[in-house]
Design a protein that fits this description.
Layout (H helix, E strand, L loop, with lengths): L3 H8 L3 H8 L7 H13 L6 H8 L4 E6 L10 H16 L3 E5 L2 E2 L2 E2 L2 H8 L3 E5 L6 H8 L4 E4 L7 E5 L1 H14 L5 E5 L4 H16 L9 E3 L5 H12 L7 E3 L3 H13 L9 E3 L5 H5 L6 E3 L2 H17 L8 E4 L2 E3 L8
Parallel strand pairs: 1-2, 1-5, 5-6, 6-7, 7-13, 8-9, 8-10, 10-11
Antiparallel strand pairs: 3-4, 12-14
Pfam family, one: LacI
InterPro entries: HTH_LacI, LacI/GalR-like_sensor, Lambda_DNA-bd_dom_sf, Peripla_BP_I
Protein name: LacI family transcriptional regulator
Length: 335
């Protein structure tokens, strides 16, 4: 086992000098510090986590609070991509991650209590009920938090630009000649509110009339509810020429319903999704969609959270907006 003692013997310096070099102290020369750290790496030295924690007052452990309403867990393509990017950046910055829940074995506890139990230096919060009292308790606590796609006062949030995303989709469909545009949206969240407002506003600016029956409520990442909403739209006396879906995965339900009615995409009806997951680009016809930049969302969340942990006096709570981009597929026909 490589220890500070064996490193000091290898380098021919005192244990105190090795300790200073490994902890980045400035009272030894830069060349000496770099040499000692180089030798330590070559010898395979790993600092004791418990000892390091006592010294730094940090565990280098980040919590991840992810409660998916659809019970898809990490098979949820959008959030799994965001969290994978978060994980990679966190590890690059020297942090491990722990998933936070209300249960540890048979014991129940709040999210805040679980974070304290696991010694989390900070927490990223994604896909939860942000009105949940236990979520609010955690956000209001002394533990640094970063939220994804939701804003709390005084906390940093990483936001996908949903307003511009819907605008880009509607404008693209409009340029393709469509005027009867329907929108199936997800459950009532801040993301849905922004997308819905952007849909109505963009349609108004383009002088597109939106009948009430053209806007249907469904659930995110739920093909069944989007399928039912699609059925209602297809059975209208004057059905839309294009349907926008809450996300690419939900579109599968709509696709099945369109086929059940004996219709073809895009010859009989045009469709577009949201998220830009891999599935959308292997379907035929290839789905027109708005790709959210999951790589940037995850990296920014990790970087901002670590900054809040390591530089608490300098870190300023911010709303970081991340742009998406339109991917024209072959599911929207020009009319």
């Amino acid at each position: 086992m490589v220890t500070i003692k064996t490193i000091s013997e290898k380098c021919g310096v005192s244990r105190a000098t090795v300790s200073k070099a490994l902890n980045g102290h400035k009272d030894i020369s830069q060349s000496t510090g770099e040499y000692i750290r180089s030798v330590a790496r070559e010898m395979g030295y790993l600092p004791n986590a418990a000892a390091r924690s006592l010294k730094t007052k940090r565990t280098n452990n980040l919590g991840v609070l992810f409660v998916d309403k659809t019970c898809s867990g990490l098979t949820h393509e959008y959030f799994s991509a965001v969290l994978e990017s978060f994980k990679v950046e966190a590890e690059r910055l020297g942090y491990d991650i722990t998933f936070i829940s209300r249960n540890i074995g048979s014991a129940s506890m709040s999210y805040y209590e679980h974070c304290k139990y696991r010694g989390c230096d900070g927490v990223v919060i994604a896909s939860v009920d942000f009105s949940d009292e236990m979520v609010i308790e955690l956000v209001k606590s002394e533990i640094p938090t970063v939220t994804i796609d939701h804003v709390f006062n005084g906390r940093t949030a990483i936001l996908s630009d949903n307003v511009q995303g819907i605008r880009d989709l509607v404008e693209y469909v409009y340029r393709c000649g469509h005027r009867r545009i329907a929108y199936i949206h997800g459950e009532d969240t801040s993301v849905t509110q922004k997308r819905l407002a952007s849909f109505y506003r963009t349609c108004a600016e383009l002088s597109i009339e939106v009948p009430n029956e053209y806007v249907k409520a469904a659930l995110y990442h739920d093909p069944k509810s989007s399928g039912l909403a699609t059925r209602e739209l297809l059975e209208l006396s004057e059905r839309p020429t294009c349907i926008l879906y809450p996300d690419d995965f939900s579109f599968i339900g709509g696709m099945n319903e369109i086929e059940r009615h004996g219709l073809h995409i895009p010859e009989d009806i045009s469709v577009a999704g949201y998220d830009g997951i891999y599935l959308s680009q292997v379907l035929r016809p290839r789905l027109t969609t708005l790709r959210q930049d999951t790589g940037v969302l995850g990296r920014e969340a990790a970087a901002r959270l670590v900054e809040a942990i390591e530089r608490p006096k300098l870190a300023i709570p911010q709303q970081v907006m991340v742009a998406g981009h339109l991917i024209p597929g072959s599911s929207v026909r020009k009319v």
